[in-house]
Amino acid sequence: MPRRVTGMAEFDRVTGGGLVPGSAVLVGGDPGIGKSTLLLQAAAALAARSGRACAYVSGEEAIDQVRLRAQRLGVTAAPVELASATSVRDLVEALDHADGPAVVVIDSIQTMFVDSLESAPGTVSQVRASAQELIRLAKARGFVLLLVGHVTKEGMIAGPKVLEHMVDAVLTFEGERGHQFRILRTTKNRFGPTDEIGVFEMTERGLMEVANPSALFLAERHGEVSGASVFAGLEGTRPVLVEIQALVAPSSLGTPRRAVVGWDSGRLAMVLAVLEARCGLSFAGQDVYLNVAGGLRISEPAADLAVAAALVSALFDRPVPAESVVFGEIGLAGEVRAVSQAEQRLKEAAKLGFERAFLPPRRGKAREAGAQAPQRASAEGALETVEIGHLQELVETLSSVSPGAPMRRHA
């Protein structure tokens, strides 16, 4: 069956090319992050594009409150039917007919209740029963069901874990309160790729799409500054360039601090250990702070080499070579391992005007770790590639130690 395309390119990218009729999609995120705004905009865009009515059911707000938000977003002309209800029985009676809406938004599933159960709305049994009844109706009638899910303080969607197994797709809406960027990420999708992201910017007129997130994440980058490197990452099928910042400062504490924002703290501990054990550096007595600029959270191991470059640059107070991108996975022996889709990362870097890339050896070109200096491959277009086989080679490049010279321990 043809997908129902909203016309919001970032939203359609995350859902795998549009919404599949009869599917159930769960959208989770922190309070106030913009879940209701996003789904109201998506429902209005789909209704205006297809001409078919869409329904927005709120269990938390009155109809007039939803209409006020629609006026602020400028979507009052779209044929979106509004309702304020919490009884699943009433919803099923209203939606169980052939000429029903094409898309139904339930905001939120934790406010719905089935009157055959005595427990309060939001409990595990009520959330499971309410979702099951609504998903059954969506499959039978062929409309798209969009469920808003509250999250716990740990960031998990509240209610039973089986709720995520019942739906066809799970989307998480991420973002920092201090940043205007919002990231919609796919964690499960039966009809498309996972780990796909859509980037939005929160404005007074609602969420605006960001077509080129790499340029936006790098907009405030300041030239050659020590402790900063640009990571060529991959989110789903989209290459994204983001700046990684590191700060190494003397510590007055017995146990130095290790603070991380946007990356895995365990992964940082591993990179620091490899730099100390395999490259002769010392971070003892130093506080280490790591930040992924722009509010993006990175999870792929390919960021290891970019993090190491930022740490070494901050330690020696020498900037990473100008207009360079870095990516690669680090092993415990200090070797730099190949990562997937390197060509796609290089193309994105060249498109944004970068001139050099530090990357792992290509498959078939692997060599003994630390045996020789960084190997420069032929320039690909306007981009020069520098292959790093061992982490010590990167340290020598950034610390301006000539190849083959003994590595001094930095205190």
Automatic annotation (TrEMBL):
GO CC, one annotated term: cytosol
Binding site for ATP: G29, D30, P31, G32, I33, G34, K35, S36
BP-aspect Gene Ontology terms: recombinational repair
Superkingdom of source: Bacteria
GO molecular function terms listed in the Swiss-Prot or TrEMBL record: ATP binding; ATP-dependent DNA damage sensor activity; damaged DNA binding; hydrolase activity; zinc ion binding
Region annotation (Lon-protease-like) ranges: 287-411
A Pfam match: ChlI
Classification via Gene3D superfamilies: 3.30.230.10, P-loop containing nucleotide triphosphate hydrolases
Keywords (A to Z) from UniProt: ATP-binding, DNA damage, DNA repair, DNA-binding, Hydrolase, Metal-binding, Nucleotide-binding, Stress response, Zinc, Zinc-finger
Keyword Membrane: no
Residue ranges constituting the RecA family profile domain according to the UniProt record: 1-151
Residues spanned by motif RadA KNRFG motif: 188-192
This protein's record includes keyword Lipid biosynthesis: no
SUPFAM superfamilies per record: P-loop containing nucleoside triphosphate hydrolases, Ribosomal protein S5 domain 2-like
Role played: DNA-dependent ATPase involved in processing of recombination intermediates, plays a role in repairing DNA breaks. Stimulates the branch migration of RecA-mediated strand transfer reactions, allowing the 3' invading strand to extend heteroduplex DNA faster. Binds ssDNA in the presence of ADP but not other nucleotides, has ATPase activity that is stimulated by ssDNA and various branched DNA structures, but inhibited by SSB. Does not have RecA's homology-searching function. Plays a role in repairing double-strand DNA breaks, probably involving stabilizing or processing branched DNA or blocked replication forks.
Family assignment from sequence similarity: Belongs to the RecA family. RadA subfamily.
Domain comment quoted from the record: The middle region has homology to RecA with ATPase motifs including the RadA KNRFG motif, while the C-terminus is homologous to Lon protease.
Official protein name in the record: DNA repair protein RadA
Protein species of origin: Tistlia consotensis USBA 355
Lineage, highest ranks first: Bacteria, Pseudomonadati, Pseudomonadota, Alphaproteobacteria, Rhodospirillales
Name of the encoding gene: radA
